[in-house]
Amino acid sequence: MSFTSPWLLWALFAASIPIIIHLVNRWRHRSVHWAAMEFLLRAARETRGTKKLLHYLILALRVLAVAALVTAFARPLLSSFFGWGSSGLNEVLLVLDRSASMDARPDKTNSLRDAIPPLVESTFAQLGSCRLSLLDSTTGAVTQIPAPEALADLTVSKTTDGGADIPALLQKAIPYLEESGSGKTEIWIASDMQASSWKPDSPLWPSVRQRLDALAIPPAIRIMALRDRPESNRGIRVRQAQVNNGRLVLDLEVLRQGFNPNQPENVPVHLSVDNAAASATLQLAGETTTIKKEIPLPQGKESGFGFVSLPHDDFTRDDLSFFTFAPRPLANILICGPPGEVGKTLSLMSAPPGLPNRKASMPGSTRAAQTKLASQSMVVWYGPPPRAEMEEKLRTFIEEGGLVLFLPDDTAHGTRHPFLGVSWGAMETAPPDEYYRLETWDRERGFLRDGSGQAAIPANRLRAVRRKPLLGKYRTLASWHDGACAVAQVRYGTGSALFLGTLPRYSWSNLADGHLLLPLLQRMADRGAERFSTAISLRVNDPALPQSATDTPVRMDNAQGTHPSGSPADTAGVYRLGAQTYAVNRPWSEDNPDQITDEKLRLLLPGASISSMHSTAETPSLVQEAWKLFLIISLACLLLEAFLCLPRHTAKRPNPATRP
Fold first, then answer.
1. Exposed / middle / buried, residue 333 (Cβ in 10 Å: 0-12, 13-18, 19+)
2. What fold does the segment set 86-229+594-622 form as a domain?
3. Of 144, 158, 155, which Cα lies nearest the Cα of 116?
4. Are 420 and 381 in contact (CB under 8 A)?
């Protein structure tokens, strides 16, 4: 509980006035012994304890009535959002989630973000003198807010097409709190509680908790949890845009939430290529639908931009997806290892005859391989792990976005020297007449995902009689039937390293049949070649966005009308900077409606106060004045005290003179 006028609480000393009067009345009376009264005193001794209790009760009611009256004049504020003493705040730091999902409209009129300014404004009207600062998820900078009512009109409080990283924001808030010296401060976190923004598995959380507790005056943390979500929603993504035989091929993915997955539906979709509009109808079924859409291109057209859009619903920011397209760049694949059967198999599968835009090369030495790394889409490494200078070169290659596929060497012993923390153990051989069978793999995402129409790659046909177990810390992409890892992935920088547990040699496995190896190599080659494509797809506020000291990005698409606006730092779209055209989209994680639970929040931020807010509230407020309640308490105490002070009713005795 807090108070609008806490200085009036000094008047609580007035509650001692009834006690003082009681004591003064006792002091001014002197006892005089009178023999005639002894009989009456002895008769009253039996009820003395009850009378004392009654007097003390009356005294307590008078004290409570005065205390409740003074408290009412101090205008108390009651809310689960506040703790004791919140009225003594010097500053409130509002950490605002500006991610795309905050623009969801559960009531079809107001977005989640629209609920924040009135909540803050109504709260500050009750708190009195207190400074307000804003730390938003887009700029990551602290802004001083001149008045709470100005919050709704500031650019730094608007929703964007970007994402949010709450633990990273709190880490940025700590240096500000250390340097500001504001005294008693509270951190208010306003968010729609999307798990992708809170990142509960982030390694930053332990450091954040420790540094907050180490502050001279640790701030209280209060969370405005806006958990309202639309009952149903559709979202669309362009996974890939390629030119093939004079046609633009779009790989589309449509997500449905809140619909009956067993009930298909036809949904119109708007297509735009170089701002030339077209339309089509998509047949959707299930929660996720993958569709390949082909659009004829004019003669000689090989590059351009565009977008696809669904009819607007309660969450409009996921109804749009932008893309650029250009001729597919040449995928150079570098095969490194000792000459022999394995190298020939890998080279043939990396660049099959007749497949365009593929070129595989096998340098004769490690030094020759180093000179070619900069122009390679991916590297396939088999045999002993890289060492010394080559190891460092491959690390840099992966960090800058390259892809490397590692296969074990053809020896019985394991490797002692790991690469990116992963190594192979000693060779294992299956029992006679048995095989190691590939049983499970990640069919939702990554290089082994299902193809168009949700058709799975035939990875379960892989059989091995020899394998080497993978050791270290990695993400498992595929597993053998006994649960051991068959394909592992380690992300490093903007690239990845993948590790296989067997060889494409028939004395080891049937990996050379291509059930798993062929799609894996082709997809890795395509992904690696994207680094050299002039068609770039980035995320809003991505650190990799093109920069210029003199030029400003120009919006190219007409998704917002004939005069579109925005910046790639906060708005999705197609932009041109100099001679470079690139598409900017919302992070796909914003399409995931999963929210973090209160139980998980209390583990991340112990002691935080969590209040569930609703964007549909007509008069949103975080606090309510309770002075009427205390006036009622004061009046009730006075009425009860008056009742107890009434003289006791005694039966009227008959007059002896009137007896017959």
1. buried
2. Rossmann fold (3.40.50)
3. 158
4. no
What is the dihedral sign for C-alpha 245, 247, 248, 250?
Answer: negative
For Cα atoms 327, 333, 338, give the angle at the middle one, nearest 5 degrees: 170
Cα pseudo-dihedral 447, 450, 451, 452, rounded to 10: -140
Say how far apart CA 238 and CA 247 lie, in whole Å. Answer: 16
- Output Rg (C-alpha) for the chain, integer angstroms: 37
Under CATH, which architecture does the 233-327+533-591 domain have?
Answer: Sandwich (2.60)
Check if the beta carbon of residue 205 is closer than 8 Å to that of residue 220.
Answer: no
pLDDT tens for 186-232 read 899 999 999 999 999 888 999 999 999 999 889 989 898 888 888 88
Give the Cα separation of 573 and 568 in Å (integer). 7
Two tokens at 385?
Answer: 């792990």
CA distances (Å), origin 485, targets 416, 514, 523 = 19, 19, 20
DSSP letter for 429, please. Answer: E
C-alpha torsion sign, points 604, 193, 254, 295: negative
Query: In the beta sheet, which residues pair with residue 404?
Result: 379, 497
Residue range 161-188, pLDDT digits in tens: 999 999 999 999 999 998 887 788 889 9
Are the CB atoms for 593 and 183 separated by under 8 Å?
A: no
Yes or no: say if 214 and 248 are a contact pair by the CB < 8 Å rule: no
Asked whether the whole model's pTM tops 0.90, one would answer no
CATH homologous superfamily for 331-532? Class I glutamine amidotransferase (GATase) domain (3.40.50.880)
- Both structure tokens of 119: 């909540």
Helix boundaries (H) for 199-246: 204-213
As a whole number of angstroms, the distance between CA 339 and CA 320 comes to 50
